[in-house]
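Following the same procedure, backbone shapes were mapped to integers, as reproduced here:
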Amino acid sequence: MSAIRLLVLGAVRQHGRAHGYQVRNDLEFWGAHEWSNAKPGSIYHALKQMAKQGLLVEHEVAPSTVGGPPRVEYEINDKGTEEFFTLLREALSSYEQKSDVLSAGIGFIVYLPRDEAVALLKQRITGLERWRSGVTEYYTPEDGPEQLGHIGEIMNMWVHTADSGAEWTRGLIERIEGGAYTFAGEGEPFVGVLAEDEPNPYATGPHPEDNR
């Protein structure tokens, strides 16, 4: 699973309707260009591809006052919304996700009901524990990973990754169950988007497709 699809669908959904530069600006405000493949070219490509796939609807809007071709705004439809929630649930529940996919899932977690978010995160812990148990049962030498020399550090790294991932997830569950954040059905959740004229302190340089 690629993080870019979830990020772009989620960013469009937060606005209801947005042009490519707004999507890019939001994701750069999140720092997604640093921790995922959400670079400008990838964002614009994803918007066009998902429009072709019927997940987003394209709308041409009037050109800017300084001239140029009409800009394209994207709106998420029912099919795109269904895909967004499928990707979101997968991102939160699967222990196999890369960190950028999990990060994207956490960014949109409040669009789920609180109980469902907790249940998905508990699935992630179960998967991590099952994976750790299977690995250590079948692949750990009797005298420990060090018996394999420096190769044993691979085992140490993966076991540590599983343990730390489960510990972090338990902490998040505890915070959510303790009432942190506003989830779906509880009111208006926090939305990390910039106002139209608000400067982005984390923006990267201009891209040829910014005004399209």
Q: What stands out?
A: Residues 91 and 113 are 16 Å apart (CA to CA). The first strand starts at residue 17 and ends at 19.
